[in-house]
Every structure is written in C-alpha cells, then in structure tokens.
Amino acid sequence: MKTFINNTIPNHFGSADKNPRKSSINVLLVNDEENILHAITRELRKQPLNIITSLNGVDACKVLVKQKIDILITDLKMPAMDSEALLDVIKKQHPHIICILLTGFDESDFVKRAINENKIAYFMNKPWSKDELIYAVQKARNNILYKRSKRLEAIKHQERQQKLDDINKRLSAACRQQLTTLKASLKKLEHQNDEIDQTLSRLIEISPNIDASFCKQISLSCTRFGEKISLNTSDINTLRLSGMLCEIGLLSTNKNWLVLQQQNTNNYQSNAYTRQVLCADLILRSLHGFDDIHSTIIHQHESYKAFKNPRKNIPYTSLVLHIVRDIWALKLGRITGDRENDGTIANYLKRYSGILYCPKLVRVAIANPSLFVPYQGDIDTPCKDIKRNIGYNLDIDVCEKEIN
Predict the structure, then answer these.
(1) CB-based contact 260:252 (threshold 8 Å)
(2) Which domains can be identified in the chain, with CATH numbers?
(3) Which entry of 22, 43, 227, 401 is 20 to 30 Å from 310 by CA?
(4) Are 62 and 37 in contact (CB under 8 A)?
(5) Distances from the Cα of 362 to the Cαs of 62, 219, 294, in angstroms?
C-alpha cells in the first residue's frame, strides 16, 4: 500500500500542540460503515485531534455548516451523497479543509482527476495501515498549524503596525503643537532681540564718547568677515552685535581719548582706553542671552599669543573683532593719526601677524579688501540688512515637513 501526497501542499512539520488534550484541530470522518469510523477513531485517539463522525455526505454537509472543520477523511463511494459530490461542495464552500480520500484500486481515474483539480491532498488505498493514516493526518495537521501561525504572525504584525501608526500620529500632533509654541517663542525672542539691538544702537548713537558710524562699519565688516571664513550663523550674529557694541565701554571714558595717536597719547590715557572693557563687562554681563557677545567684547584687545593660551579661554570671534576693529582704526587714522591705505594696512598686519593677529585672519583680510569698503547710504541700513540675513539655527519649515 502506498500513500499519495499532493505536492501542491507545503510540507511543514511544526510542533504539536503544547496541550494535546485541548486540540484546536477538528477532523471530520465520513463513512457509511460505522465499524470503519470506529476503527479510524481508535487509530487516531492518541493524536491531538477533535474527531467528529458522519455516516454520509448529506450529514457531513450539515456538520460543515455548524462547525469549523480542518481535516476531512472520507470514503469515495457512499449512499445519498458520494465523496465526489462532497468534495465539490468542500472545494467551493470550504477550500481551507485538507481532504484525505480512502479509495480502492479500481478508482484511480477519479483519484487522478481529484488531485489535478486540487480537491484532495492525500489518498490511501484500502486497506490502509495505522502508521500510514497517522502519518497523513500528522502531515495535514502540521500544515494547518503552520498556516495558522503565519496568519497569526501577520495579524500581530498588523496590530503592531497599527499601534505604531497611532503612536506616530500622536507624536506628530504633539510635535506640531510644540513647533507652533516654538514658533511663537522664537518670534517673541526675535522681537525682544530687535528691541535690545535698537536700544543699544540708540545708546551708542546718543553717547558723545562713541562714534556710532565707526561701530556700525565694524559691525558690517565683522559680518562680512565671518561669512567669508564660513563661521556658523550663531558666531556671525555674535560678531555683528559685538562690532556694534565694541566701544560700549567708552561710555565712561573721556571724549578726547578716542583718537589714540601713538605720539600724543600717554600711558595713562592708553591704559584707560584699553580698560574700557571693564565698563563693557559691567554693562553686558547682566544681559540675558548676551554671553557670547560679552565674552567677545571683553577679550577684543587680547593678542593672538594670548589666544593660544588655553587658560585664557578667549573666543575665536574676539580675534576677528580685533583685526576688523584695528583695520578700520587704521583707515580712519585712529592709531597712527593718518588715514592709511590698503598697502600700508597690509604691511602693518603682516608685521604683527602671529603676535597681535591670527595669521589666517591676516591672510583673509589682505586678500579681501572689499570686506572693509564703507557702506554707502543710511548708516542704519547695513545693520537692518545684516539682521535679515542672520537667522536661527532651527529651520521650522524643515521640521514641519519632516513631521508631515
């Protein structure tokens, strides 16, 4: 005797149920001979199966309506409704059921046709052996459990995906809310910064000891310089405001000491001018959000040699402010008493390169004299233009696009 196994059904040998007494596999036995039903039931009693019996195809169809059947074991020839008609019903209405056919040797034509039409998965010739029957049933059972596990895995995956989608929706909503709040905060902060800028700018303009035009030209050149050497947005903004406020400490200094001609300024006056940073320190240290500007301004007179000393903790922006401020001072005759041209300024910078000034910044300054071209027009305009070009590091629109 041989058992034919339809190769169209995957051959997966899964593990048996953890609790064989509570099986979820229902087997329907259909045969018009009760002794055969008893024999098959007896042979399968130790298997983790729920066995249901029926004496003909009509009763079997009623069972199929009331209960979920996984495996069908049926004889071919029966009264009232033979297996051929029963298999047609199963194929149309219950295609998930795995069918095992018990047949005689003279019924091979029907068996071949049933196999080709995918109506049966297994068949056994009469008389069959117990091992042959158990093997066929176990194989069908394992195929069913495998498919169930795949379906369950797909359902769990779908549930997990749904949960993730729900979480993402909630997070997106929360992020949008936070971005809305952040937008409002940034707008408020920008407004406050504008007010601070305007207040300090007006303070410089009305001070008799500070040349507002000089400071604003330094502010513009510092911004150009920072962009030229590819500083980040935050450092460029620091340079812009530091240039504007570079001489705020002169609020407490004698007006006549503004022009520091080397031949006319005594040590007391020169030291007083340099010590203006102490006054700037007192003014700026209490302003919230001005830490970088405060540090840049109070270190603006430090040399490049001092910058290389790690204990000094001098910001790089101070080196930029230092060289830009001195170039404008040379242009306006505030150092030598004469307005110097680009060639003289270049020689001066080279002389003190590596001592007072950073060599890299010296090279950039000499190679780019356009950084120090005076702004033609309203002196307030360059600062407004600069402000429009300086933004916050956080791009809200990009964040919103990523969330959506």
Answers:
(1) no
(2) 3-153 (3.40.50.2300), 208-392 (1.10.3210.10)
(3) 227
(4) no
(5) 98, 18, 24
Torsion of CA 345, 348, 352, 354, to 10 degrees: 50
What pLDDT, on a 0 to 100 scale, did the predictor assign at position 386? 40
Tokens of 274: 């340099």
At 288-318, the pLDDT tens digits run 778 899 999 989 989 999 998 888 899 999 9
State percent of the chain over pLDDT 70. 81
Buried b (16+ CB within 10 A) or exposed e, 139-164: bbbbbbbebeeeeeeeeeeeeeeeee
Tokens 């110097």 sit on residue? 340
Q: Rounded distance, CA 108 to CA 96, Å?
A: 24
3-state secondary structure of 382: helix
Angle between helices 267-274 and 276-284 (to 10 degrees): 20
Other C-beta atoms within 10 Å of 122: how many?
Answer: 23
Quick one: which of 233, 247, 315, 311 has its CA closest to 284?
A: 247
- The answer to whether the CB of 80 falls within 8 A of the CB of 58 is yes
Instruction: Give the pairing of strands 71-75 and 98-103.
Output: parallel
Average pLDDT over residues 60-78: 90
Taking the C-alpha atoms of residue 174 and residue 180, their distance in angstroms, rounded to an integer, is 10
Residue entry with tokens 């593990």: 15
Residue 123 is encoded by which pair of tokens? 């068949």
Which strands form 98-103's sheet, in the order they lie side by side? 3-5, 122-125, 98-103, 71-75, 26-30, 50-54
Residue among 131, 35, 134, 121 nearest 70 (CA): 121
Name 101's bridge partners.
74, 123
CA angle 131, 133, 138 (to 5 degrees): 90
Do 374 and 382 meet the contact criterion of CB atoms below 8 Å apart?
no
**Residue 118 three-state SS:** coil
Rounded Cα gap, residues 117 and 95, in angstroms: 12
Q: What is the dihedral of CA 43, 48, 49, 50, to 10 degrees?
A: 110
pLDDT in tens, 382-402: 444 444 333 444 455 555 555
* Bond prior to 79 in cis (omega within 30° of 0): no
